[in-house]
Write a structure and sequence with these properties.
This protein is of the alpha/beta class. It has nine helices and 41 strands.
Length: about 550
C-alpha cells in the first residue's frame, strides 16, 4: 500500500508523495504516517504544509478539476542529521552547546562537537565529563528534541592578597574585649586575666607576605591578569626589632607592655602606679602609664604614650598620645549645666567595658563591651558597643559620631530616650581627597595643552631654525606630563571608586533591637526612627538612606 502514495528519493534523504489517476483510495494524514513508518522514515522531519498541500491535491474534488497525472511529486519529509549550536556568554566566561536530535539522520558525534568548538574558538576550560554527558543524553532524545548543556567554563583571576600582619600577643584593649572563659563554659566579665606583658626576645608580630595571585582565562583562551597584592614591610616601634633568623618576625627588644601599631608593635617601659588620687596628684608622663587601680574623681592623667587602667575612671580626665584602655569602666555623672565632667581623649583607640555620662574622643576606634549611656563620643574610626559574642551591648542616649560605621547589639531604649548617631563623618574629608586629585588632573591637562601649543609654534619655524635643545626640552616635558596624567587619572578613578564602595559598606547596625527615638545620619542623609525594629542596619543604597532587616 505504501508505494501507492509515498516513495523514498533516490538519494534516500527525502520522502516523496505521488498520487496516480488510477488510485481509488483517498489518502489521509493517518495513512501517510503509517506508510512513512513502513518505509522506515517515521523519524524523518515532516513538512506539515507540504502534507496539507499533497492531501488537498489528491482529494476527489481536486482530481476532477486538475490533471493529477501531471502533478509533480511533493517532498513531505526529509532526513536530517543532528545539529548543534554553540552559545558563548557575553563575558566569555561560559560556553554552552544546544543539540537538536536527528530526524532519522546521523547522530551527534564527538568529532562534531570538537569541530563546533574549534569554529567558535572555544579552547580553554572545556569539561570532558560534560562532553561525555552531552553525547549520552543526545542518544536518548526524541527526533527534534533539544538539549542544552554548558561545556566550557572560564576562570576569574584570583587577585593576590595584600601583606598581612598577625599579632602573636594581645594588647590591653584586646584583653578588655575578650574576657576569660571559665571551666563551666560561661564568660566572667569581671575576670580579665593578668595584665599582658612580654619578655625580651618574645615574638610579637608575624608578617605574611603579599601573594602574586592566580591569573584567570576566558573560554576563548584570553588571559585575565591577576592583580598582585600590595606588599608592606614592618614598621618596628620602640622596644621591638626584626628577627635576624626570620625577616617576617618582629620580636620584643625589651620587657614591657605590648601595643599594636598598624604594621608594627611597640613595647612600652611603662610608669606603673597603684592608683591616681589626691595622694599621687595629677600625672603627666612622657611615655606610657599603667595604673593597676582606679583613677578617682577630679584627677587628671596625661601621657605621650598609652594609658592602661585596670580599675575604674570616675569623674576624671585622661589624655593619651596613643591608646587608652580602661578595663572596668568609665563613670561620669549628669551635671546641672549639662556638661560632662568625665573626659577621655586619645589619639589612638579607646577601649573600655562601659561608659556613662562621659565625653570621649579618639583618633581611631572606640570599643565597649557592655554599654554606653548618655555619652558624647567622637571617633575618627568605628564605634562598637558589644561583646565578642554579640550577646550584650547597648548604646543609648547622648550623641555618637563615627568616622565610619557604628555597631551595637541594642540601639536606643524602650523609653524612647533621644539617641543621636551620626556615621560616616569622614565623608567630607574623603570627598575632598577625590576633588583634590581631580583638580590635580585638570591642572596637568592644562599643562599638556600648553606644551602642545609650544610644539605647534616650534613646528611653524623652518627646521634649520629650530633650537635642538629647546625641542628636546619640550619633548621631554611632554612625555613627563603625559605620564603624570595617566598616573593622576588612574589615581583619581581609584579614589572615586573606593569612596563609592565605602559609602555602600558603612552602616549603623543594631544586631538585636533598634528602638524608636533614634535620630540617625549617614553622610548627609538623615533618618528618624519612629518605631521599634528587630535586627537591622541603616545604610545607603542607590543614594537612598534606609533601614533593612539583617
Amino acid at each position: 500500500m505504501a508505494e501507492l502514495f509515498l516513495r523514498i528519493s533516490d538519494d534516500g534523504q527525502s520522502v516523496l508523495f505521488a498520487a496516480t489517476p488510477s488510485q481509488e483510495l483517498v489518502p489521509t494524514r493517518a495513512l501517510l504516517l503509517e506508510q512513512l513508518h513502513r518505509l522506515g522514515a517515521g523519524a524523518f522531519y515532516l513538512y506539515e504544509k507540504a502534507i496539507d498541500s499533497a492531501l488537498a491535491a489528491a482529494s476527489p474534488e481536486q482530481q476532477l478539476e486538475a490533471d493529477i497525472a501531471s502533478m509533480e511529486p511533493i517532498v513531505i519529509a526529509e532526513r536530517r542529521d543532528a545539529s548543534l549550536v554553540v552559545k558563548v556568554d557575553p563575558d566569555f566566561m561560559r560556553a554552552s552547546i544546544t543539540v537538536i536530535a536527528p530526524f532519522g539522520g546521523n547522530p551527534l558525534t564527538g568529532a562534531d562537537i570538537l569541530e563546533a568548538l574549534k569554529q567558535n574558538r572555544i579552547v580553554k576550560g572545556i569539561r570532558k565529563t560534560q562532553l561525555h554527558q552531552l553525547l549520552e543524553k543526545t542518544q536518548q532524545l526524541a527526533p527534534g528534541e533539544k538539549l542544552t548543556l554548558p561545556i566550557a567554563f572560564g576562570r576569574l583571576p584570583e587577585h593576590g592578597r595584600d601583606a598581612r600582619f598577625e599579632p602573636l600577643v594581645e594588647d590591653a584593649s584586646h584583653r578588655i574585649l575578650k574576657p576569660k572563659l571559665g571551666d563551666d563554659g560561661k564568660v566572667d566579665m569581671l575576670d580579665l586575666g593578668e595584665l599582658i606583658t612580654v619578655k625580651v626576645g618574645q615574638p610579637l608580630l608575624k608578617r605574611i607576605p603579599a601573594t602574586e595571585g592566580v591569573p584567570g582565562f576566558t573560554v576563548q583562551g584570553k588571559a585575565l591578569v591577576a592583580k598582585p597584592g600590595k606588599d608592606s614591610e614592618f614598621q618596628p616601634g620602640e622596644g621591638t626589632m626584626i628577627s635576624d633568623q626570620d625577616p617576617n618576625l618582629l620580636l620584643a627588644e625589651q620587657s614591657g607592655i605590648p601595643v599594636r601599631k598598624g604594621r608594627g608593635m611597640q613595647v612600652d617601659e611603662a610608669l606603673t602606679l597603684k592608683g591616681v588620687n589626691v595622694a599621687t596628684g595629677h600625672i603627666h608622663f612622657d611615655g606610657s602609664i599603667l595604673i593597676t587601680g582606679d583613677v578617682t574623681p577630679g584627677m587628671r592623667v596625661s601621657a605621650t604614650g598609652n594609658i592602661t587602667v585596670a580599675g575604674f575612671v570616675e569623674l576624671a580626665e585622661l589624655k593619651a598620645g596613643g591608646d587608652i584602655s580602661i578595663i572596668k569602666g568609665i563613670i561620669g555623672r549628669k551635671q546641672q549645666d549639662a556638661k560632662l565632667a568625665c573626659k577621655v581623649e586619645a589619639k589612638g583607640n579607646v577601649t573600655s567595658k562601659f561608659a556613662q555620662f562621659a565625653e570621649i574622643s579618639c583618633g581611631q576606634n572606640a570599643q565597649f563591651t557592655l554599654h554606653v549611656l548618655h555619652c558624647v563620643i567622637r571617633a575618627e574610626g568605628e564605634v562598637v558597643v558589644m561583646d565578642q559574642f554579640k550577646r550584650q551591648g547597648t548604646l543609648s542616649g547622648g550623641v555618637t559620631e563615627a568616622g565610619y560605621s557604628i555597631r551595637t547589639v541594642n540601639l536606643g531604649a524602650l523609653a524612647g530616650i533621644p539617641t543621636v548617631v551620626n556615621a560616616f563623618t569622614k565623608f567630607e574629608y574623603l570627598q575632598q581627597q577625590v576633588q583634590d586629585k581631580h583638580r590635580d588632573y585638570q591642572i596637568e591637562l592644562q599643562n599638556v595643552e600648553k606644551i602642545r601649543q609650544a610644539q605647534l609654534k616650534l613646528l611653524k619655524l623652518p627646521e634649520h631654525k629650530r633650537p635642538i635643545e629647546l625641542s628636546e626640552r619640550i619633548q621631554s616635558a611632554a612625555e613627563q606630563h603625559k605620564s603624570q596624567i595617566t598616573y593622576l587619572e588612574t589615581d583619581y578613578q581609584q579614589l572615586r571608586d573606593e569612596y563609592e564602595e565605602l559609602k555602600t559598606r558603612v552602616t549603623i547596625t543594631a544586631f538585636n533591637r533598634l528602638y524608636s527615638g533614634v535620630q540617625s545620619q549617614l553622610e548627609k542623609e538623615k533618618l528618624v526612627i519612629d518605631q521599634d525594629h528587630g535586627p537591622c542596619k541603616l545604610h545607603i543604597t542607590e543614594q537612598v538612606f534606609q533601614c533593612s532587616p539583617l
